[in-house]
Amino acid sequence: MTTDKSKGRVKVKEEAQLSKTTQRNLARATRNLAKIFEENLRELEDSRLDQFKKKAVFVRWQADSEMNPDKWDLASALRCLPNSPSSVWHERLETLKADAQLHGDSEVLRFTDRMLALVNEQDKKNAYSEHGELTYPLFSPSESYGGKEKK
Fold first, then answer.
1. What is the distance, to the nearest Å, from the Cα of residue 112 to the centroid of all Cα atoms in its chain?
2. 21 against 123, higher pLDDT
3. Taking a C-beta distance cutoff of 8 angstroms, is the pair 121, 129 a contact?
4. Residue 19 to residues 11, 74, 116, Cα–Cα distance (Å)
5. What's the rounded Cα separation, in Å, for the pair 150 and 138?
6. What whole-number distance in Å separates Cα of residue 96 and Cα of residue 116?
7. Angle of helix 106-125 relative to helix 86-103, nearest 10 degrees?
8. Could you read off the pLDDT of 47-62 as tens digits, one per residue?
9. What does the DSSP assignment read for 58-123?
10. Nearest CA among 73, 82, 70 for reference residue 149
């Protein structure tokens, strides 16, 4: 601690240097926390993927991979609204695809590829504004995702 006599104030000099032992302990603690974080993140991703695989739309698709899911069921499984813009559908499917790739889940990868193809097909049918944004929702209220009515 030093005193500045001209202004009558006490200045505290900050000790910015850490001892070598403290630096090593801090580095070790940081590595341990990173490892714990990675393990918890992997568990969260596992559970998110496992939760998706229990969704009715995925179970039905496994039974018939050529089926065109109802947009409401798919939206629910992807946690978005049926009238969400195309970009939201793409983002949700790409996130799911990344989780499946990370965990080597070929069934979910095939599902996401099929659904992305349907979204892209639907995109081509929709009108876009001059800025490349959808001018109306991805689906009309009565159509299923693949453009076929539910039976």
1. 13
2. 21
3. no
4. 23, 56, 55
5. 17
6. 11
7. 160
8. 788 889 999 999 999 9
9. HHHHHH-TT----HHHHHHHHTS-TT--HHHHHHHHHHHHHHHHHHT-HHHHHHHHHHHHHHHHHH
10. 70
What span, in angstroms and rounded, lies between the C-alpha atoms of 8 and 92? 62
What is the C-alpha to C-alpha distance for residues 52 and 55, in angstroms, rounded to an integer?
Answer: 5
Whose CA is closest to 73, among 151, 146, 145? 145
User: What distance in Å separates the CA atoms of residue 94 and residue 105, rounded to the nearest whole number?
Assistant: 14
**Which residue, chain included where needed, has tokens 């601690």?**
1
pLDDT of residue 128: 57
9-11 and 2-4 strand pairing: antiparallel
**Where along the chain do its domains lie?**
46-151
If DSSP codes are grouped into helix, strand and coil, which group holds residue 16? Answer: coil
Q: Which of 3-12, 35-44, 78-87 has the highest mean pLDDT?
A: 78-87
Q: What tens digit of pLDDT does each residue of 86-128 get? A: 899 999 999 999 999 988 999 999 999 999 998 888 877 775 5
Indicate the residue type of 96.
L
Contacts of 150 (CB under 8 A, 6+ apart): 70, 144
